[in-house]
Design brief:
CATH architecture of one domain: 2-Layer Sandwich
Oligomer: single chain
Protein name: SPFH domain-containing protein
Structural class: alpha+beta
Number of helices: 10
Organism: Empedobacter falsenii
Distance between the termini: 149 Å
Largest sheet: 5 strands, antiparallel
CATH topology of one domain: Tetrahydropterin Synthase, Chain A
Number of strands: 18
Helix content: 25-40%
Amino acid sequence: MDFFKKIKGEFIDIIEFLDNNQNTIVHRFERYQNEIKNNAKLVVREGQLAIFINEGQLADIFSPGTYTLNTQNLPILSTLQGWKYGFDSPFKAEVYFVSTKTFLDQRWGTKNPIILNDERFGMIEVRAFGTYTFKVSDAGKFIKEIVGTIGSFTTEQINEQLRSVIVTRFTDSIGEANLPIENYAANLNELSEAIFNYMKDDFGAYGIDVTKFLIENISMPEEIKKEIFELSRLDKIDLNKFAQLKAAKAMEAAANNPSGLAGAGVGMGAGFAMANQFTQGFAQNNNQSNQNQTPPPISSTSVSFFVANNGQQTGPFDLTTLKQMIANGQLTKDTLVWKTGMANWESAANQSELTSLFGQTPPPLPQA
Protein backbone atom coordinates (compact mmCIF):
# COMPACT_ATOMS: atom_id res chain seq x y z
CA MET A 1 0.00 0.00 0.00
CA ASP A 2 2.79 2.43 0.90
CA PHE A 3 4.46 1.71 -2.43
CA PHE A 4 1.37 2.68 -4.42
CA LYS A 5 0.92 5.83 -2.35
CA LYS A 6 4.49 6.80 -3.17
CA ILE A 7 4.00 6.14 -6.86
CA LYS A 8 0.79 8.17 -6.79
CA GLY A 9 2.70 11.03 -5.17
CA GLU A 10 5.14 11.11 -8.06
CA PHE A 11 2.31 12.13 -10.34
CA ILE A 12 1.57 15.26 -8.29
CA ASP A 13 3.27 18.10 -10.16
CA ILE A 14 4.61 21.27 -8.55
CA ILE A 15 4.51 24.15 -11.01
CA GLU A 16 6.63 27.16 -10.05
CA PHE A 17 9.36 29.45 -11.38
CA LEU A 18 12.35 31.06 -9.66
CA ASP A 19 14.12 33.78 -11.65
CA ASN A 20 17.88 33.71 -11.13
CA ASN A 21 18.93 36.60 -13.39
CA GLN A 22 16.19 39.13 -12.50
CA ASN A 23 15.80 40.09 -16.18
CA THR A 24 13.16 37.53 -17.19
CA ILE A 25 9.79 39.03 -18.09
CA VAL A 26 8.06 35.82 -19.22
CA HIS A 27 8.99 32.17 -18.65
CA ARG A 28 7.13 29.15 -20.00
CA PHE A 29 6.95 26.22 -17.60
CA GLU A 30 8.20 23.22 -19.57
CA ARG A 31 6.52 19.81 -19.17
CA TYR A 32 6.69 16.76 -21.40
CA GLN A 33 3.98 17.23 -24.05
CA ASN A 34 2.64 20.05 -21.84
CA GLU A 35 0.83 17.48 -19.69
CA ILE A 36 -0.20 18.53 -16.19
CA LYS A 37 -1.49 16.00 -13.68
CA ASN A 38 -4.79 16.39 -11.89
CA ASN A 39 -4.43 18.06 -8.46
CA ALA A 40 -0.99 19.46 -9.35
CA LYS A 41 0.28 22.27 -7.13
CA LEU A 42 0.73 25.74 -8.62
CA VAL A 43 2.93 28.20 -6.70
CA VAL A 44 2.77 31.83 -7.81
CA ARG A 45 5.11 34.13 -5.90
CA GLU A 46 4.81 37.84 -5.25
CA GLY A 47 5.67 39.82 -8.37
CA GLN A 48 4.37 37.03 -10.64
CA LEU A 49 1.26 36.00 -12.52
CA ALA A 50 0.64 32.51 -13.93
CA ILE A 51 -1.23 32.32 -17.23
CA PHE A 52 -2.68 29.10 -18.68
CA ILE A 53 -2.88 28.84 -22.47
CA ASN A 54 -5.06 26.12 -24.01
CA GLU A 55 -4.61 25.44 -27.74
CA GLY A 56 -3.35 28.97 -28.28
CA GLN A 57 -6.18 30.58 -26.33
CA LEU A 58 -5.74 32.36 -23.00
CA ALA A 59 -7.62 30.31 -20.40
CA ASP A 60 -6.92 31.22 -16.76
CA ILE A 61 -4.79 33.76 -14.88
CA PHE A 62 -3.57 33.16 -11.32
CA SER A 63 -2.32 35.87 -8.96
CA PRO A 64 0.24 35.19 -6.13
CA GLY A 65 -0.67 32.20 -3.99
CA THR A 66 -0.65 28.36 -3.88
CA TYR A 67 -3.32 26.47 -5.80
CA THR A 68 -4.41 22.85 -6.33
CA LEU A 69 -5.27 22.51 -10.01
CA ASN A 70 -8.66 20.89 -10.47
CA THR A 71 -12.01 21.78 -12.04
CA GLN A 72 -12.78 24.19 -9.21
CA ASN A 73 -9.60 26.23 -9.71
CA LEU A 74 -9.65 26.00 -13.52
CA PRO A 75 -13.18 27.12 -14.43
CA ILE A 76 -12.36 28.53 -17.86
CA LEU A 77 -10.03 25.70 -18.80
CA SER A 78 -12.63 23.19 -17.57
CA THR A 79 -15.23 24.76 -19.83
CA LEU A 80 -12.87 24.73 -22.82
CA GLN A 81 -12.07 21.03 -22.37
CA GLY A 82 -15.63 19.98 -21.52
CA TRP A 83 -15.04 18.59 -18.02
CA LYS A 84 -18.51 18.27 -16.60
CA TYR A 85 -17.89 15.75 -13.85
CA GLY A 86 -14.22 16.30 -13.02
CA PHE A 87 -11.20 14.67 -14.58
CA ASP A 88 -8.62 12.09 -13.57
CA SER A 89 -6.29 11.94 -16.55
CA PRO A 90 -3.53 14.53 -17.26
CA PHE A 91 -4.63 17.63 -19.14
CA LYS A 92 -2.65 19.68 -21.66
CA ALA A 93 -2.00 23.37 -21.15
CA GLU A 94 0.90 25.77 -21.42
CA VAL A 95 1.77 27.72 -18.28
CA TYR A 96 3.53 31.09 -18.57
CA PHE A 97 4.92 32.91 -15.56
CA VAL A 98 4.86 36.69 -16.11
CA SER A 99 6.90 39.02 -13.90
CA THR A 100 4.90 42.05 -12.74
CA LYS A 101 7.79 43.78 -10.97
CA THR A 102 9.26 47.09 -12.15
CA PHE A 103 12.35 46.66 -14.34
CA LEU A 104 14.80 49.40 -13.39
CA ASP A 105 17.68 51.18 -15.15
CA GLN A 106 16.72 50.38 -18.73
CA ARG A 107 18.98 52.33 -21.08
CA TRP A 108 17.97 54.13 -24.28
CA GLY A 109 19.84 56.29 -26.77
CA THR A 110 19.89 57.53 -30.35
CA LYS A 111 21.83 55.22 -32.66
CA ASN A 112 22.16 57.91 -35.30
CA PRO A 113 22.25 61.70 -34.82
CA ILE A 114 19.00 63.61 -35.09
CA ILE A 115 19.03 66.62 -37.42
CA LEU A 116 17.43 69.81 -36.09
CA ASN A 117 16.98 73.23 -37.68
CA ASP A 118 18.07 75.85 -35.13
CA GLU A 119 17.28 79.52 -35.74
CA ARG A 120 20.79 80.70 -34.79
CA PHE A 121 23.04 77.88 -35.95
CA GLY A 122 21.07 76.32 -38.81
CA MET A 123 21.05 72.54 -39.31
CA ILE A 124 22.54 70.75 -36.28
CA GLU A 125 23.06 67.09 -35.42
CA VAL A 126 22.26 66.11 -31.82
CA ARG A 127 22.34 62.87 -29.86
CA ALA A 128 20.59 61.94 -26.64
CA PHE A 129 20.53 59.15 -24.08
CA GLY A 130 18.87 58.35 -20.77
CA THR A 131 17.05 55.73 -18.69
CA TYR A 132 13.52 54.45 -18.16
CA THR A 133 11.66 51.91 -16.03
CA PHE A 134 8.68 49.75 -16.99
CA LYS A 135 6.48 46.89 -15.83
CA VAL A 136 3.88 44.58 -17.37
CA SER A 137 0.42 45.99 -16.66
CA ASP A 138 -1.64 43.57 -18.78
CA ALA A 139 -0.06 40.10 -18.80
CA GLY A 140 -2.51 38.62 -21.30
CA LYS A 141 -2.05 41.43 -23.79
CA PHE A 142 1.73 41.32 -23.37
CA ILE A 143 1.86 37.61 -24.23
CA LYS A 144 -0.46 38.04 -27.21
CA GLU A 145 1.26 41.15 -28.65
CA ILE A 146 4.93 40.56 -27.78
CA VAL A 147 5.79 37.08 -26.53
CA GLY A 148 3.77 34.77 -28.77
CA THR A 149 5.18 31.25 -28.49
CA ILE A 150 8.65 32.20 -27.19
CA GLY A 151 9.58 30.03 -24.22
CA SER A 152 11.52 32.72 -22.35
CA PHE A 153 11.38 36.46 -22.85
CA THR A 154 13.86 38.90 -21.24
CA THR A 155 14.35 42.65 -21.06
CA GLU A 156 17.12 42.48 -23.69
CA GLN A 157 14.63 41.11 -26.22
CA ILE A 158 12.11 43.91 -25.78
CA ASN A 159 14.45 46.85 -25.18
CA GLU A 160 15.26 47.26 -28.86
CA GLN A 161 11.58 47.71 -29.72
CA LEU A 162 10.96 50.03 -26.78
CA ARG A 163 14.00 52.14 -27.66
CA SER A 164 12.66 52.67 -31.17
CA VAL A 165 9.41 54.03 -29.73
CA ILE A 166 11.31 56.30 -27.33
CA VAL A 167 13.61 57.75 -30.00
CA THR A 168 10.65 58.44 -32.27
CA ARG A 169 8.81 60.28 -29.50
CA PHE A 170 11.98 62.13 -28.52
CA THR A 171 12.44 63.40 -32.07
CA ASP A 172 8.82 64.57 -32.26
CA SER A 173 8.98 66.28 -28.87
CA ILE A 174 12.11 68.34 -29.41
CA GLY A 175 10.83 69.34 -32.84
CA GLU A 176 7.56 70.61 -31.36
CA ALA A 177 9.31 72.27 -28.39
CA ASN A 178 11.20 74.55 -30.83
CA LEU A 179 13.76 75.46 -28.15
CA PRO A 180 17.08 77.15 -28.95
CA ILE A 181 19.82 74.53 -28.85
CA GLU A 182 21.56 76.22 -25.90
CA ASN A 183 18.39 75.84 -23.75
CA TYR A 184 18.12 72.05 -23.96
CA ALA A 185 20.32 71.41 -20.92
CA ALA A 186 18.11 73.66 -18.78
CA ASN A 187 14.89 71.95 -19.89
CA LEU A 188 15.71 68.23 -19.61
CA ASN A 189 13.01 67.70 -16.98
CA GLU A 190 10.34 69.38 -19.11
CA LEU A 191 11.33 67.39 -22.20
CA SER A 192 11.39 64.15 -20.18
CA GLU A 193 7.88 64.83 -18.88
CA ALA A 194 6.54 65.61 -22.35
CA ILE A 195 8.00 62.44 -23.88
CA PHE A 196 6.81 60.38 -20.90
CA ASN A 197 3.22 61.51 -21.52
CA TYR A 198 3.49 60.75 -25.25
CA MET A 199 4.75 57.21 -24.67
CA LYS A 200 2.02 56.03 -22.31
CA ASP A 201 -0.38 55.05 -25.08
CA ASP A 202 2.40 53.54 -27.22
CA PHE A 203 3.55 51.21 -24.46
CA GLY A 204 0.01 50.55 -23.26
CA ALA A 205 -0.77 48.92 -26.61
CA TYR A 206 1.72 46.18 -25.65
CA GLY A 207 0.40 45.72 -22.11
CA ILE A 208 3.36 47.67 -20.66
CA ASP A 209 3.35 50.63 -18.32
CA VAL A 210 6.34 53.03 -18.38
CA THR A 211 6.76 54.14 -14.78
CA LYS A 212 9.65 56.57 -15.21
CA PHE A 213 11.49 58.23 -18.09
CA LEU A 214 14.56 60.46 -17.95
CA ILE A 215 16.76 62.26 -20.47
CA GLU A 216 20.27 62.34 -19.04
CA ASN A 217 22.02 64.29 -21.76
CA ILE A 218 21.52 65.92 -25.16
CA SER A 219 24.86 66.34 -26.92
CA MET A 220 25.78 68.49 -29.89
CA PRO A 221 28.87 68.92 -32.11
CA GLU A 222 31.90 70.31 -30.29
CA GLU A 223 32.22 73.35 -32.58
CA ILE A 224 28.62 74.38 -31.82
CA LYS A 225 29.20 73.87 -28.10
CA LYS A 226 32.32 76.08 -28.18
CA GLU A 227 30.49 78.79 -30.11
CA ILE A 228 27.64 78.79 -27.57
CA PHE A 229 30.15 79.12 -24.72
CA GLU A 230 31.89 82.04 -26.46
CA LEU A 231 28.61 83.85 -27.11
CA SER A 232 27.51 83.39 -23.50
CA ARG A 233 30.79 84.90 -22.29
CA LEU A 234 30.53 87.87 -24.64
CA ASP A 235 27.09 88.65 -23.25
CA LYS A 236 28.57 88.94 -19.76
CA ILE A 237 31.87 90.80 -20.24
CA ASP A 238 32.82 94.47 -20.75
CA LEU A 239 34.02 94.65 -24.36
CA ASN A 240 36.25 97.70 -23.71
CA LYS A 241 38.07 95.94 -20.90
CA PHE A 242 38.30 92.79 -22.99
CA ALA A 243 39.92 94.77 -25.83
CA GLN A 244 42.40 96.30 -23.38
CA LEU A 245 43.28 92.84 -22.09
CA LYS A 246 43.87 91.59 -25.62
CA ALA A 247 46.07 94.60 -26.38
CA ALA A 248 48.08 94.08 -23.19
CA LYS A 249 48.68 90.44 -24.07
CA ALA A 250 49.76 91.43 -27.58
CA MET A 251 52.24 93.93 -26.12
CA GLU A 252 53.62 91.29 -23.76
CA ALA A 253 54.07 88.88 -26.65
CA ALA A 254 55.79 91.59 -28.70
CA ALA A 255 58.17 92.39 -25.84
CA ASN A 256 59.23 88.75 -25.77
CA ASN A 257 59.83 88.70 -29.54
CA PRO A 258 63.41 87.49 -30.08
CA SER A 259 63.81 89.49 -33.33
CA GLY A 260 64.77 92.65 -31.45
CA LEU A 261 63.34 96.15 -31.08
CA ALA A 262 62.21 96.38 -34.66
CA GLY A 263 60.38 93.10 -34.45
CA ALA A 264 58.91 94.17 -31.12
CA GLY A 265 57.58 97.32 -32.72
CA VAL A 266 55.91 95.34 -35.44
CA GLY A 267 54.48 92.95 -32.86
CA MET A 268 53.09 95.79 -30.76
CA GLY A 269 51.47 97.36 -33.78
CA ALA A 270 49.92 94.07 -34.79
CA GLY A 271 48.67 93.57 -31.27
CA PHE A 272 46.92 96.96 -31.18
CA ALA A 273 45.46 96.37 -34.64
CA MET A 274 44.14 92.97 -33.62
CA ALA A 275 42.54 94.36 -30.47
CA ASN A 276 40.94 97.23 -32.39
CA GLN A 277 39.62 94.90 -35.09
CA PHE A 278 38.04 92.69 -32.44
CA THR A 279 36.13 95.56 -30.84
CA GLN A 280 35.15 97.29 -34.08
CA GLY A 281 32.52 94.65 -34.84
CA PHE A 282 30.74 95.44 -31.55
CA ALA A 283 31.04 99.22 -31.66
CA GLN A 284 27.83 99.96 -33.50
CA ASN A 285 25.70 97.62 -31.37
CA ASN A 286 27.01 99.19 -28.18
CA ASN A 287 26.30 102.65 -29.59
CA GLN A 288 22.66 101.78 -30.27
CA SER A 289 22.10 100.14 -26.88
CA ASN A 290 23.57 103.00 -24.86
CA GLN A 291 24.03 106.40 -26.51
CA ASN A 292 25.61 107.91 -23.40
CA GLN A 293 28.60 105.57 -23.29
CA THR A 294 31.99 106.74 -24.51
CA PRO A 295 32.46 105.54 -28.11
CA PRO A 296 34.77 102.51 -28.38
CA PRO A 297 38.12 102.68 -30.16
CA ILE A 298 38.15 102.38 -33.96
CA SER A 299 40.64 100.46 -36.05
CA SER A 300 43.92 102.34 -36.38
CA THR A 301 44.23 101.23 -39.99
CA SER A 302 41.44 103.66 -41.04
CA VAL A 303 40.70 107.06 -39.47
CA SER A 304 37.07 107.33 -38.40
CA PHE A 305 35.13 110.03 -36.58
CA PHE A 306 31.92 110.11 -34.57
CA VAL A 307 29.77 113.13 -35.45
CA ALA A 308 27.39 115.05 -33.17
CA ASN A 309 24.11 115.53 -35.00
CA ASN A 310 21.25 117.35 -33.23
CA GLY A 311 22.66 116.40 -29.86
CA GLN A 312 22.93 112.71 -30.83
CA GLN A 313 26.07 110.66 -31.40
CA THR A 314 26.30 109.18 -34.94
CA GLY A 315 28.98 107.20 -36.68
CA PRO A 316 31.68 106.21 -36.86
CA PHE A 317 32.27 107.52 -40.41
CA ASP A 318 35.38 107.08 -42.53
CA LEU A 319 36.97 109.95 -44.43
CA THR A 320 35.15 109.15 -47.66
CA THR A 321 31.76 109.33 -45.93
CA LEU A 322 32.75 112.52 -44.05
CA LYS A 323 33.73 114.19 -47.35
CA GLN A 324 30.27 113.37 -48.74
CA MET A 325 28.65 114.77 -45.58
CA ILE A 326 30.60 118.02 -46.01
CA ALA A 327 29.40 118.26 -49.61
CA ASN A 328 25.80 117.71 -48.47
CA GLY A 329 26.07 120.30 -45.71
CA GLN A 330 25.66 117.70 -42.97
CA LEU A 331 29.14 118.41 -41.58
CA THR A 332 30.57 121.92 -41.12
CA LYS A 333 33.72 123.25 -39.53
CA ASP A 334 31.79 124.01 -36.34
CA THR A 335 30.32 120.49 -36.05
CA LEU A 336 31.59 118.60 -32.98
CA VAL A 337 33.49 115.38 -33.75
CA TRP A 338 35.36 112.69 -31.79
CA LYS A 339 37.85 109.93 -32.62
CA THR A 340 40.04 107.46 -30.76
CA GLY A 341 42.62 109.25 -28.57
CA MET A 342 40.67 112.49 -28.12
CA ALA A 343 39.75 113.50 -24.56
CA ASN A 344 36.69 115.55 -25.56
CA TRP A 345 34.49 116.41 -28.50
CA GLU A 346 35.97 119.23 -30.64
CA SER A 347 34.99 121.16 -33.73
CA ALA A 348 35.81 119.65 -37.09
CA ALA A 349 37.91 122.67 -38.04
CA ASN A 350 40.48 121.71 -35.37
CA GLN A 351 41.13 118.25 -36.82
CA SER A 352 44.02 118.06 -39.25
CA GLU A 353 42.54 115.04 -41.01
CA LEU A 354 39.38 117.02 -41.81
CA THR A 355 40.76 120.46 -42.72
CA SER A 356 41.97 119.12 -46.05
CA LEU A 357 38.47 117.78 -46.76
CA PHE A 358 36.94 121.22 -46.28
CA GLY A 359 39.51 122.60 -48.72
CA GLN A 360 38.62 120.01 -51.34
CA THR A 361 34.91 120.77 -51.20
CA PRO A 362 33.89 123.39 -53.79
CA PRO A 363 32.10 126.51 -52.45
CA PRO A 364 28.38 127.06 -53.12
CA LEU A 365 27.52 128.23 -56.62
CA PRO A 366 26.92 132.00 -56.92
CA GLN A 367 23.29 132.97 -57.14
CA ALA A 368 22.16 134.39 -60.48
